[in-house]
Each structure stands twice: as C-alpha cells, then as structure tokens.
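**Protein of interest**
===
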Amino acid sequence: KSILETMINFVVVLVLCLELANSFAPHSFIVRKPVYQLYATTLSSTQAEFSLKGYLSRLTPLIEDRLKECLSHQDTPETTKITEAMYYSLLAGGKRVRPVAACLAYDYIKGSPPVDASVEQLKEHYRDVLSLGVSIEMIHTMSLIHDDLPAMDDDDYRRGRLTCHKVYGEDVAILAGDSLLSSSFEYLVREGKGTVEPLRLLEVLERLSASVGNLGLAGGQVMDLECEGKPSKEVTLDDLRWIHKHKTGALLNIAVAGGAILGGADSSTVADLEVYADKIGLAFQVADDILDCTATSEELGKTAGKDEAVDKATYVRLMGLDGARDEARRLRDEAIETLGEGGEGLSALADFIVSRGN
C-alpha cells in the first residue's frame, strides 16, 4: 500500500510539474487551437449576429486615438515640421481596413470581447494587435505619400484634400514618408515589449519588414511602373496578380497573419489565413480598378479616371468592366471559403472590400 501511495503521489507531482512547465514554455512549442475550434458552438451563436458596422463603431475610435498619439514622443520644437507632415497624412481619414483586418483576425483566434464591453475593456483586449495595426497604417501612409509624388503617380489629391507634397513640398514629403516607415517598426517594438511573447513579436516584426521590400509593396510598385503604358497584350493577368499580391496584398497579409499570430494561432492556422488575406488583397485592387472607372473624384477623394489617363495596367483594361466585377466576386467567395467557424467578421470584411464605394 505504501508503495502504491508513493507511486500515486509521484504521478500527481509529475503532472503538476508538467502543467507548470507548460505555462512557462515558449509558445512556439505549444500548439494552440484557434478559439473557433475550441468553442465553436458558443462563437457560432454570438458571431451569427455579427455586424461590421457595429464592430467599426466600437473599434474605429480606438484606432484613431492610437494613431493620434503614436508620434507624440517625437514632436519637439526641432521636429515640428516633419512631425506635422507625418500627422497630416496619417490622420487624413481613410477606411483603416488594415488595422480592422488585424483585429478581426485576432478575434478569430482569441475570441471577441462582449458586445457590452466598456471602452477600457476594449482597449485592453485589443492593446497588442492595435500596436500592429497602427504600425501597418504608418507604412500604408508612407506608401501613399510616395505614390502621390510626381516621380510616381503624380497626384494632387488624396482622401479629399491636397497630397502631402503639395502642402509641404516634395523634399519634406519624401522624408515624412521615410520617417513613418522607420517609426512603424519602433512603435511595434516599443509597445510590444513586456506584453507580447518575444518569439511572436519577432515573427510579426520579420513579416512586417518583409512586406515593405522587393517581395512586398516596393517590388510590386516597381513592376507596376514598368507595366505602365505597355500594350495590353504585353501584360498578362499573372503579371497583374503578382503586382497586386505584393503592392496591395502584402500589407493585408501581414495584418491578417500578424493579428492571428498575436492572438496565439499555430502555424497551420496562420497559413490558412494567409490564403484568405491574399484573396482579399487581390479583390481590394480589383475593386479599386473598378471604382477608378465608375466613381467620381468627389466619391473617391482622389482623381478619378487616372488609370486610363496614364494607360495603367488594370483588371478593367485586361478583363473588361463586367469581367473585373466577376473576378472581384470570385476572389471574395474563395476568401470566405477558407474560413472556419467564427469567421463571420472576416467574411463581412471580404464583402465590404468588394462592395465599398470608395
């Protein structure tokens, strides 16, 4: 009996030790199932009533507040002009699709906060993923500032007002974009230290860095410029898809994948969500090409018809307007098909991307 009792006690202590060790183990060694797999029934009944409009009404003020304060530590008497130029473009409005996508992916894994959650509870729930969302929005804003320069798309208006270089000059606009890019990495690390597991923070930082380079938006932009003015027969759909998977889709990919990683997703789930992100990234660009042909400058907040004027390679040019609309719907449907239980929020985002008016 004494031997049996000893063995039982040994097993109990061993189990407790294993549980304790598991709680401190690096998460790269822990396989976490997404919440939608663990609590499918609960989330299904909650998410069935998902309203993107309601979600945005709660989330957008949090995003805007974080954007307003993200550069405050850099605002000194000596840096007033460049900081003002950075904020001028960063706070010019916009859909904030990328921060929203990051938060939806985070909720897909971690679970959404209660509908009646207080502002403070929402701030705590989204603290780490909003750091990523703000960082991505800084990079996105940098790309818009540089896109609008005379050497690139040469646009005078963005989001309904004069572009950065029209207000501050080309020299300051270039430097403001450069500073937003470097600030994005600084912000993500500064805000994530002490709250995000180091290995997960490093993975997100690596992915964020890659999204900007030659296999990200910079490489996509260069190929886009190279295709400008070429006859339609010299630009294939595969060329166009490569351009926009990188120029447009890269930041949506890091938003969705990064949000999932911060939520605790395993590598398999992240890979599935990357397929979703690539689909909505392409759908976003197809919708943009359609809007450039069908919406007014007032509706778009920028010059309409610009693609055709500079003979840009677009989905409408290669597929026709009806073909481009079919392509957008196909990409949306394929994106939604990749999602499991609890994916209503991400599904609603895919719908919004295709049906938006600007």
